[in-house]
Amino acid sequence: MHMIWNHTTDLVPCDQTRLLIPDFCITCFNGRGSLQSQHVTVYKTTMTSTAPTLKMDQALLIFHNQLPHEVEVLYTSDFCYKCVYQHLVRVKASYNNASAIISTKFTLSIQVEFNKRNVTLCRWSQKYEDGGHYSVWILRSDNASNATCIHAVLQKANNTYLPILVATLSLAIIALIFVIAPCIYRKCRTSKTIFSRRLNYSLENAQTQPTQSEDSATNAKRKRLRSLDAFRGFALTAMVFVNYGGGGYWFFQHAPWNGLTVADLVMPWFVFIIGTSVVLAFGSAQKRGLGRLQLLQKITWRTAVLLTLGFCFLNYSPRDGPLSWSWLRIPGVLQRLGFTYFVLALLQILWGHKANQPMTAQWWAPIQDVVLYWPQWLTIILLETLWLCLTFLLPVPNCPTGYLGAGGIGDDGLYPNCTGGAAGYIDRLIFGDNMYRYPTCKEMYHTTQPFDPEGILGTINSIVMGFLGMQAGKIILFYKGKNIHILCRFLTWAIILGISAAVLSKCTREEGFIPVNKNLWSLSYVACTGCLSFLLLAAVYLITDVMGWWGGRPFLYPGMNSILVYVGHSLLGFYFPFSWEMRFQQSHWEWLFQSLWGTALWVIISYLLYRKKIFLKI
């Protein structure tokens, strides 16, 4: 087990030290600074209390103080940027011990201090394993101002990743079965059909021609891109899974502040595909002869319904009951999606009819899908300029201008009430307390200010993210039938956005010009997730619409009923049979099964609705 130790003096070699610790295998430093393991025959100690029951993502640390004075143990998470050390436990002098339950999600930095003199005796950094029991012996050193801290494993940790490994293999086997079985069925069916067609052809020379309505319906069906529905359904299914807890794994939950996890990808993907769908849907509507006024009425109604659903039905108030103003959250996911959709649709109504056929005569023909829509691009550039100016130039009381941190105990505790900088300040100024009170940074950074990840400034960059999706839709329209061109354009945009994200973040989590941050929907976050969106859409488009290797199932079904699935899982997610009160909280097994079960139920429900041709549309 790798550990980082920080001492001002060399440790006494293991074979020259007599330790008052139990008789088990320990690991310590030898005189040359390398690690060695050995059994040490020592005096045994007895524990006066039984070990507490650990829950998921927890470990037990038992500190044994062999020093003649009391010590204090402090800790901080390495994921917490420049965070102030927090009190963990105080251990009395002379062969006393104390225990503490710690989190195993991230690497912890722990230090032992001489309480009265505020002198650091030893310090180390380590990621502890789920369910493990560890013993730390604080021993005398030759230097009176230092001590030797030695680790020992009392109880081996659980295999944290075994549940997700089993689940992944099981899903892979199920997916393989559902891929192979239809292939075999189609192969058998094709051979029979070919024989049957030849037989019918030889008996009946005249074939009944399809009617005009049937032919147009068939063409419309063929024109529908399965990749869009599959992409949307995949993003929605992943969103349901992470909203149901993602099995309790930290990488299926949102990052505490800066950084990127799987849970941070799903909403940008959904916003991206909204933009793509807007271009294709409105292009089709304009071909059918719908005027701007009719389209404007349609998008206004749809936006109003989304805002109403998010504001009324998906709001909650654990203190005063449903729809209580004292706890009401004004921003929200559906509110952001609705407003983003409205702006994107308005851009398409105003300036989306510029060109339906590619022009190749002009010098700017290679970038015509950008140049022809210059009013839209100008609007997006102005919006992004507004975001940059407000974020980095707006004065925030008692906070540094341009601050992007979480506040709380972060940044050496200098800005405890500056959570989110200008973004948090604007939201608190407009919404007051009617916003999200438990941001992802609250637990780690010990923040006290409310911060809403669906706030006003973040919505600006949500529009930018949707506009990148609109660009994907324009590429599909401009290069219709030219699959190589479409895929190359997708990859080009992915490279441009990937390089932009790398430059803005300096390929680091915390030290970039603009860190990747889902809470703020920072520009680097939009560039990074936009890059991944283009790559994912290119992959799905290739294997579904180009090669025909995959029909998009089962993600096709929730993708075609996205509003029903999202609203339904939000309203019913805490009720049986989608979830239940868990009884085995010591590991990820039950929580992962519950998350997968609830997600699978919504996929099945969407499939049944698909079979019945029931689609909830706004």
How do you describe this structure in short?
It contains 16 helices and eleven strands. It has 618 residues and is of the alpha+beta class.
Structural commentary:
- α4 packs across α11 (456-478).
- β5 (71-77) and β6 (86-91) form a beta hairpin.
- The strands form 2 sheets. This protein has a 6-stranded mixed sheet, with no helix packed on it.
- The protein folds into 2 domains: 4-155, Immunoglobulin-like; 226-357 and 367-611, no CATH class.
- It is 46% helix and 12% strand.
- Mean pLDDT is 81; it is low at 1-48 and 192-222.
- The protein is globular and about 90 Å long.
- It is α+β, with helices and mostly antiparallel strands and 618 residues long.
Count of individual domains: 2
Strand order in space, largest sheet:
3-2-11-10-4-7
Largest sheet: 6 strands, mixed
Structural class: alpha+beta
Distance between the termini: 55 Å
* Unreliable stretches: 1-48, 192-222
- Number of helices, counting only DSSP H or I runs of 4 residues or more: 16
Average pLDDT confidence is 81
Shape: globular
Tally the beta strands: 11
Helix % is 40-55%
Radius of gyration: 30 Å
Q: What is the string of helix and strand elements?
A: EEEEEEEEEEEHHHHHHHHHHHHHHHH
- Indicate the proportion of strand residues: 5-15%
Task: Set down the secondary structure blueprint.
Blueprint: E1 4-5, E2 25-29, E3 35-39, E4 58-65, E5 71-77, E6 86-91, E7 96-103, E8 108-114, E9 119-126, E10 133-140, E11 147-155, H1 162-203, H2 212-223, H3 226-243, H4 266-287, H5 292-313, H6 333-351, H7 368-371, H8 374-393, H9 421-431, H10 442-445, H11 456-478, H12 483-505, H13 523-546, H14 556-559, H15 562-572, H16 589-611
Parallel strand pairs: 4-10
Antiparallel strand pairs: 1-9, 2-3, 2-11, 4-7, 5-6, 5-8, 8-9, 10-11
Helix pairs in contact: 3-4, 3-13, 3-15, 3-16, 4-6, 4-11, 5-6, 6-11, 8-11, 11-13, 12-13
